[in-house]
């Protein structure tokens, strides 16, 4: 086996990305404090061509050199919008027909691999603060909660790791399993 060179991968340009069909998923960051986590989420969202990222509360916004360190330019390709509160973002998502899920350990949460998605639906996932998670007010506004099963001694994953896993699962179910 030989590793492919970047030129051999035939990646989209930023303009091609902006005009391409998107995965019907918006990722919402609820008071995410780490600029590196924000950048990493941008990069994962670019990889799976999601609709948009909503940055809320204390979550930093581009342009920002620290976000760029991990986004590597994905902050230029992925559409994003800032909201003063996550509640405002959720209200807008509901008004545009999105099913909104908090990614959180909650009573009655759905295990990520067991979620049902409809290829005609629009979805949003909310990822919370690195210490406090998704605010309870935002959980209350959500249509449901998704939880990643964990089997070790820790009770959480890094927000950027969680984003990659959740976005991948939506892509797998909406794009790959639909074939």
TrEMBL record:
A molecular function GO annotation: methyltransferase activity
A Pfam match: SpoU_methylase
Keyword Transferase found: yes
Alphabetical list of CDD domains matching this protein: SpoU-like (cd18097)
Single GO biological process annotation from the record: methylation
Domain tRNA/rRNA methyltransferase SpoU type, residue spans: 25-167
Keywords from the UniProt entry: Methyltransferase, Transferase
InterPro entries: Alpha/beta_knot_MTases (IPR029028), rRNA_MeTrfase_TrmH (IPR004441), SpoU_MeTrfase (IPR001537), tRNA_m1G_MTases_N (IPR029026)
PANTHER family found in the cross-reference section: 23S RRNA (GUANOSINE-2'-O-)-METHYLTRANSFERASE RLMB (PTHR46429)
Protein name from the UniProt record: RNA methyltransferase
Source lineage: Bacteria, Pseudomonadati, Bacteroidota, Bacteroidia, Bacteroidales
């Amino acid at each position: 086996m030989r590793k492919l060179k970047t030129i051999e991968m035939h990646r989209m340009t930023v303009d091609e990305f902006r005009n391409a069909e998107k995965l019907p998923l918006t990722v919402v960051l609820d008071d995410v404090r780490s600029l590196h986590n924000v950048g990493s989420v941008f990069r994962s969202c670019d990889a799976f061509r999601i609709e948009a990222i909503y940055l809320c509360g204390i979550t930093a916004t581009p342009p920002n050199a620290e976000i760029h360190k991990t986004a590597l330019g994905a902050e230029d390709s992925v559409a994003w919008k800032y909201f003063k509160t996550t509640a405002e973002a959720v209200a807008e998502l509901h008004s545009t027909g999105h099913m909104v899920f908090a990614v959180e350990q909650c009573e009655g949460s759905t295990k990520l691999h067991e979620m049902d998605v409809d290829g005609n639906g629009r979805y949003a996932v909310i990822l919370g603060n690195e210490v406090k998670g998704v605010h309870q007010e935002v959980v209350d506004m959500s249509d449901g909660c998704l939880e990643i099963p964990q089997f070790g001694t820790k009770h959480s994953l890094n927000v950027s790791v969680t984003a990659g896993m959740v976005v991948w699962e939506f892509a797998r179910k909406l794009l790959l399993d639909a074939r």
